[in-house]
């Protein structure tokens, strides 16, 4: 290693480790670069290629956001109740609320088809960095380079799709330092098998969310089908009847959504000062609106239930993340480490030429982002138009426009390799509730108007002298997009059909699309492309110093985390790692058995009849490195057996977006023993329990 490399190695290590403190179980590791040496050194454990293959092939990604795993030879998939909640909501009706009341298929014929649900199983990973970066020619600016890389990625994906027939995504790692082609087997016939009642799946509700001790049965089972028969996955995970114990080494295979640990200080300051505060404004606003809408009646409350949970969960997570970003000690450590790296690079002329300007350019990009953030969020991200009908209309408009272009020139979500998944959602027969859509759209239009003002040209054009309520009523009651056959006809007719149709929602999408596209282009050229190019330079310094022994930030792709079952201290108290089923009843009693601390009648009946083992472990905590998107991830032991199911983190874990620290941050899991005990003793789901225990 050269002197320059040694300097960079020391600097990079300090930048990537929260100001110098290296924590033993840190890392969301890609499956083609696992920390095998560290596992051997720390835990005397050497996973074999077969062990890794089984876990990788058993892991499942939900397109609705979240993780899962195959847990039987007949395509049984385990995830969280809150990951499956979107589907539970879609198959529910005014007369049957599966989200709240739960569901058990007595036979496979009773399993309910979930609309527009796609499961992805990772098949292969190929490094395509050289090919993507080869598209960037000497003399290209960041914007031109960004366009060239996007075209190269689309071409690689299309070639892979044509060759393999598999879903093909080029994934950006290390914020542009590396690119990998991920290919997935897709399952689109997915059926609900079991879900408990909402009151036990989310026992403790919003007050207990991101807290511990917890007592939740946050589990849901689906079954994947192929050719109308249960899928026969190549691998699945065996169930552990014994569960885990304090101090055990455990592993988590899941799809963490997004972390920002490699971000520069300027980037973190942008999140702290601009992005997170604005997000919280919207989250608080939508949460309050949904709570008021739910007060109109039981059916309105049912319609709003899943979205309300989502906003509450996001609001609490964002607030915790913002608290971390406002922690002066954390930011000081980040700033100190970054300054040290920059000073050391300045001492090396070649390094300074190659990487020295990266931080300043990233800071400039975020100045641009700050200027356009509100309009970008309202228009391109659609926050001004909170209606599934609007987003259907926009998708139809853009699909027609993008399909007229060569594949490499399209927006990323409309590339050939993504069209099939896009159409699954576009032509979904999931129910749409006009009253709810009208109320949401009116509220979001009013929020947009409040933030941008009456004099904003686009606000004035859309409202045209009317109130948000009047506009929403006209758009929702006048559209025919609730009819799937109408959507299919419009998609088939292309842009000509869309320009001719007399549909107010289509007209709205057309009216705002040019402005939204302009903002998107500006963001891609002046922010995204700059970040990609400059972070790639910082990543290159990392690779020169120590190869890719540093894990990349999360990207909703499959990762392996590991840790130990371990309690922690909070407020001067020792928090044990496990809770019990009996503790759930005590927790309910301590809160007067009032919502959200009400256990379902099925649990009280099982206890009364002596069927329920109250000593059974219910939830447990571990030091595994997880974040949002890991929900539904299996927790396995050294033998690759399921010992738990990730469903949350404690409040101290909310800072893990930006820096890992396992002193008190913990991942929270449902214990495998609680799941099995509930199936047998509460729900009489003997066949399902037996299926979990069947060995290959």
TrEMBL record:
Keywords: Aminopeptidase, Hydrolase, Protease, Serine protease, Signal. It is an enzyme of class 3 (hydrolase). Residues 1-24 form the signal peptide. Its EC number is 3.4.14.-. GO terms for molecular function: dipeptidyl-peptidase activity; serine-type aminopeptidase activity. It holds the Pfam family Peptidase_S46. GO terms for biological process: peptide catabolic process; proteolysis. Catalyzes the removal of dipeptides from the N-terminus of oligopeptides. Belongs to the peptidase S46 family. This is Dipeptidyl-peptidase.
């Amino acid at each position: 290693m050269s002197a320059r490399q040694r300097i960079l190695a020391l600097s990079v290590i300090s930048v990537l480790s929260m100001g110098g403190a290296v924590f033993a179980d840190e890392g969301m590791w890609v499956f083609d670069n696992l920390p095998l040496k560290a596992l051997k050194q720390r835990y005397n454990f050497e996973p074999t290629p077969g062990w890794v293959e089984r876990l990788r092939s058993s892991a499942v990604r939900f397109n609705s956001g979240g993780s899962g795993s195959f847990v039987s030879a007949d395509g049984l998939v385990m995830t969280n109740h809150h990951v499956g909640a979107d589907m539970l909501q879609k198959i529910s009706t005014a007369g049957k609320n599966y989200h709240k009341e739960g569901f058990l298929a007595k036979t496979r014929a009773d399993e309910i088809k979930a609309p527009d649900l796609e499961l992805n199983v990772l098949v292969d990973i190929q490094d395509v960095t050289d090919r993507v970066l080869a598209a960037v020619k000497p003399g290209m600016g960041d914007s031109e380079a960004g366009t060239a890389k996007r075209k190269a990625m689309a071409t690689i994906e299309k070639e892979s799709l044509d060759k393999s027939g598999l879903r093909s995504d080029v994934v950006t790692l290390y914020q542009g330092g590396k690119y990998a082609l991920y290919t997935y087997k897709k399952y689109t016939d997915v059926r609900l098998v079991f879900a408990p009642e909402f009151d036990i799946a989310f026992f403790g509700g919003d007050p207990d969310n991101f807290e511990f001790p917890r007592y939740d049965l946050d589990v849901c089972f689906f079954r994947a089908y192929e050719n109308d028969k249960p899928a026969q996955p190549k691998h699945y995970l065996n169930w552990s009847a014994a569960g885990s114990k304090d101090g055990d080494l455990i592993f988590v295979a899941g799809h963490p959504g997004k972390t920002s640990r490699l971000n520069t200080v300027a980037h973190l300051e942008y999140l702290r000062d601009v992005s997170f505060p604005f997000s919280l404004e919207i989250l608080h606003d939508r949460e309050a609106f949904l709570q008021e809408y739910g007060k109109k009646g039981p059916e309105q409350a049912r319609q709003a239930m899943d979205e309300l949970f989502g906003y509450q969960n996001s609001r609490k997570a964002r607030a915790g993340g913002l608290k971390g970003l406002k922690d002066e000690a954390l930011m000081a450590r980040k700033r100190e480490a970054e300054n040290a790296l920059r000073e050391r690079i300045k001492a090396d002329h070649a390094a300074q030429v190659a990487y020295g300007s990266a931080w300043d350019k990233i800071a400039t990009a975020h100045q641009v982002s700050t200027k356009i953030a509100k309009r970008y969020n309202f228009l391109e991200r659609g926050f001004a138009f909170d209606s599934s009908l609007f987003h259907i209309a926009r998708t139809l408009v853009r699909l027609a426009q993008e399909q007229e272009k060569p594949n490499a020139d399209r927006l990323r979500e409309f590339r050939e390799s993504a069209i099939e998944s896009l159409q699954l959602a576009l032509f979904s027969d999931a129910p749409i509730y006009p009253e709810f859509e009208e109320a949401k759209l009116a509220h979001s239009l009013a929020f947009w108007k409040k933030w941008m003002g009456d004099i904003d040209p686009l606000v004035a054009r859309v409202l045209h002298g009317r109130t948000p309520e009047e506009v929403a009523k006209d758009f929702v009651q006048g559209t025919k997009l609730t009819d799937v056959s109408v959507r299919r006809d419009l998609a088939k007719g292309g842009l000509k059909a869309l320009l001719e149709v007399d549909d107010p929602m289509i007209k709205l999408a057309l009216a705002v699309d040019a402005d939204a596209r302009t903002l998107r282009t500006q963001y891609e050229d002046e922010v995204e492309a700059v970040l990609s190019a400059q972070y790639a330079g910082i990543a290159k310094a990392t690779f020169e110093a120590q190869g890719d022994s540093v894990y990349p930030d999360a990207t909703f792709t499959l990762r392996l985390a590991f840790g130990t079952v371990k309690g922690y201290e909070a407020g001067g108290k020792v928090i044990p790692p496990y809770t019990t089923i009996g503790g759930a009843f005590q927790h309910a009693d301590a809160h007067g058995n009032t919502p959200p601390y009400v256990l379902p009648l099925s649990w009280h009946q099982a206890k009364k009849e002596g069927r329920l083992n109250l000593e059974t472990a219910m939830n447990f905590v571990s030091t595994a490195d997880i974040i949002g998107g890991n929900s539904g991830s299996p927790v396995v032991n050294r033998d690759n057996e399921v010992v738990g199911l990730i469903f949350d983190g404690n409040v101290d874990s909310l800072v893990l977006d930006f820096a890992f620290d396992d002193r008190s941050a913990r991942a929270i899991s449902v214990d495998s023993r609680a799941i099995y005990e509930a199936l047998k003793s509460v729900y009489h789901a003997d066949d399902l329990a037996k299926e979990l225990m069947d060995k290959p």
